[in-house]
Structure formats: structure tokens, C-alpha cells
Amino acid sequence: MDKLPKDLAESLLPWYEANARPLPWRQDPTPYRVWVSEIMLQQTRIEAARGYFERFMAALPTVEDLAAASEETVLKLWEGLGYYSRARNLHRAAKMVVERYGGRLPADVKALRALPGVGDYTAGAVASIAFGLRAPAVDGNVLRICARLTRCPDSVGDKAVKDAFRQALQERYPPAGGKCAAFTSALMELGETVCLPGTPDCGRCPLSPVCAAHGAGRETDFPVMPEKAPRRVQRRTVFVLEHMGTAALCKRPDKGLLAGLWELPNLEGELDEAGVLRQTAAWGCAPVEASPCGQAVHIFTHLEWHMTGWRVLCAAAPDRFVWTTAAQREDRYPVPSAFRAFKALL
Ligand code: SF4
């Protein structure tokens, strides 16, 4: 495997200055703004995160505001972004930052890393972008660039490979200070706009003269990816239960998938009309009629839900569910996007 080029920063920084996109979190990159944006951007595309970030900052502009907010307020601001444990951890971490550090994020990788939901990547991003420290932020984009620059033959899923790149990159960082922020952002920008997974745009890349994969004409042979376990498919029946202008929601368990979020009642398996009527009667809903209301698929990391919806008119409203109006669902009950297709029917 080749080494990372020595003059990585010198090649990348002028390119970044000329090509950086004006993203909302790049304006006024306070530690809090950088932190929230990096958590949001995990598993979320930039374009999707943009509006959420601006709304989040308008509602909770400081660490103290976030720490003092209710969990439902935070989850409501996160509604639709998915991976809700990110929001919960952010909330918990904000409380810790207020208690331990007086509301100021610590300028130290280890201390950042100790906060809930902050891994090596986020700690590196905040430390370098917000505090100007020599701390690499190695995500999938940066791994891809490193693997191509060096023609790395090993899987980038291996922790040892990731650690080795983090170490090698750290040696390529400019001296601590303002340029560390730009270097981290430049690597991210290159991975998001030029060194793309399937179609790297090497003609526009400032690193093409020093890129081993490009030199060999083998850009798309790298990175070597880990083998993926196939996702499990689970069939579910979703109930849109209606009673006198209200609709039923219930809360998911505090642990596991979509923990603690509100959802439309649903269960594993695909019921037919008779099964739906039987189940809703058993819940005490006194079903009057049931009709199918569509199908939807939601993909989680390791699981796919294949859902069939049933709209059921109910003569009774058992208190095992919360019976909500449209306004209450809008203001108070964060329902994950897995149920978007059915929630839209309410
Ligand atoms: S030259 Fe091509 S493969 Fe190499 S880093 Fe640049 S875009 Fe990626």
C-alpha cells in the first residue's frame, strides 16, 4: 500500500478555499453548531439536513437551550430525520455539557469523545473545525479518499485500517490553528463533491497528481468494502384507528428500534380483514368496519419493514391508546418517518 501524500494539506487547502459550498453550519462555526450539524449529518444527506439544522438552531440556539428543552421538543424537531437515538444522545450530552463544563463544549478530543453519541468521527470534527486542533474526522468519505490515494488492499470496515488512516492523516494536518478546520472540511468536501463512490470526478480533483488509484486507472477498485449482511424482511400490519375525529397512537418501548417514539398501532405479520377486525375487537375498539389503506416499505440498517395498512372505524376508544387530534399530532407527538405513508392518511 502507498503512503498518504506528504503535501496533502498544501494541495487541498487552495482548492477548498475556491470551492467550499456555503452550508449553514459553515457560517459561524461555533462548537455547538458544528456538533449539532455533525450529529445530524450522520446517516442524513446534506440537502435533507439543511432545513432541519436551521429549524433546530432557531428553536434551540445554545447548549443551555437544548439542555433545558423537553425530550418531546427535541424529538419533534428531529421528526423525519430518523435514527432518533442521535437526538436523545444529543439531548443527554447537552445536559452533561451544562453540568460539567458550564455550557461550553470542551476543547479536547478525549472529553468530547466521552459525551453520549460522540464517536471518534464527531469528536475529531468538532475538535478540528470548532477548536482548530489537529484531530482527523474519519468517516466513509474520508476513508474512501484515503483508500484511493494509497490503493489500500484491506477492507475499510476493519477497525485497524480506520485507526491506521486516522493516525496517518493526523501527521498530515497543518499546525494547530485555523487551517486545521479548513483541512477537515476540505476532506469532507472532496468526498462529498468530487471523490464520489461510483464516479470519482478525477479531472476536477486537486489530488489527482498524487493519487495512486488514479495513477493506475483503478479508482473504482477502492475502497475495498466489508461484506454486508443481508437485511431481514419483516411483514407488519399497521392500524389507522379512527374514533370521532381522533386517531390512535401508542408509545414504543424505551429500548430498541425507534425507542420511546409515538407510532400508529402495528404488529408483526400480515393480517386480512377478519384478522384486523378480530385484533381491534380484542383491543376493545369495537370495530365498525375495516378497509385496506395502502402498503409501504421502510428500510432500517439491518431490517426492512414491509407494511400493510388498515383503516378501522372504531365505536370505542380504549385507553390503551392515546386518541389524538390532528393539531396534537402536529405539536406534541413525534411519529417516526417509518409511518409517514399512513400518518398522511390521518
Ligand atoms: S484522483 Fe480521483 S480517485 Fe483519486 S482522490 Fe481524486 S477523485 Fe478520488
Kindly describe this structure.
This protein is 43% helix and 15% strand. It is of the alpha+beta class. It folds into 2 domains: 214 residues, Hypothetical protein, domain 2 (Endonuclease III, domain 1, Orthogonal Bundle); 112 residues, Alpha-Beta Complex (Nucleoside Triphosphate Pyrophosphohydrolase). Strands 1, 2, 3, 4, 5, 6 and 7 form a 7-stranded mixed sheet that branches. β5 and β6 form a beta hairpin. α2 crosses α3, α2 packs antiparallel against α8 and α8 packs across α11. The radius of gyration is 24 Å and the shape is elongated. 37% of the residues are buried. The model has no long low-confidence stretch (mean pLDDT 94). Bound molecules: iron/sulfur cluster. The site of iron/sulfur cluster has 14 residues, from α9 and α12.
The overall strand count is: 7
The CATH topology label of the largest domain is Endonuclease III, domain 1
Taking all residues together, what is the mean pLDDT? 94
Level-1 CATH class name of the largest domain: Mainly Alpha
Under the CATH scheme, the architecture of the largest domain is Orthogonal Bundle
The H-level CATH homologous superfamily of the largest domain, spelled out, is Hypothetical protein, domain 2
Which structural class best describes the helix and strand composition?
alpha+beta
The protein's oligomeric status is single chain
Q: Tell me what portion of residues adopts beta-strand conformation.
A: 5-15%
Determine the N-to-C terminus distance. 57 Å
Give the number of helices: 15
Order of helices and strands: HHHHHHHHHHHHEEEEHEEEHH
Bound molecules: iron/sulfur cluster
Instruction: Work out the count of structural domains.
Output: 2
Radius of gyration: 24 Å
- The helix content is 40-55%
